[in-house]
């Protein structure tokens, strides 16, 4: 298993946001995390690369124990790419410079090699013609595709997506989901927090339904979306699929 999570908790003072999450993700598996707002989905995802420090429990990613103080989190983050709701591109750098930055700074890749890789990644996300453009000239969907290319530039073992389409206009959602679908076909291990139920059904090998800081249901999309036993899940799906 490339990700193993055992009894993960996260508290903010007296507020218990995650209440003992245990799950695992296999290599090349795509796991979609669904659930109502405030259920702990994004906090769970952010704990996986320690953008949020866990209160207790254990997370092991690609052999790195995140609860071990000796673990080098910068090394772990090189192996775990993350794409946020907001694109977080550097406005004063071109699209290509945004994609080249981390490999040059962190991996000490040569400018020439980083440029070659960057152009290949922009081609992968359908934006090779925007290499020399600044982010302000891009649509939200294009910016998110650049953010995906930037995360891929570190050649990660795992990709984490935190509601990658929630900040986009509806007509721009499809172009971002298409890029993520292609990554799934290529065998990228991914954990995706999403509100896009049809996408989760189509691309997910497994669905995790979270509510009130716990995993309420977990399984193959057909099991989760066809679940008539769990009242909370049935109520949630009734609202979002209506």
Automatic annotation (TrEMBL):
PANTHER family (alphabetical): AMINO ACID IMPORT ATP-BINDING PROTEIN (PTHR43166), ARGININE TRANSPORT ATP-BINDING PROTEIN ARTM (PTHR43166:SF37)
Protein name: Amino acid ABC transporter ATP-binding protein
Domain ABC transporter: 3-237
Entry's Gene Ontology molecular function annotations: ABC-type amino acid transporter activity; ATP binding; ATP hydrolysis activity
InterPro entries tied to this protein: AAA+_ATPase, ABC_ATPase_HisP-typ, ABC_transporter-like_ATP-bd, ABC_transporter-like_CS, MetN_ABC_transporter-like, P-loop_NTPase
Source organism of this protein record: Brevibacillus antibioticus
Keyword Transport: yes
Superkingdom: Bacteria
Keywords: ATP-binding, Nucleotide-binding, Transport
SMART domains associated with the record: AAA (SM00382)
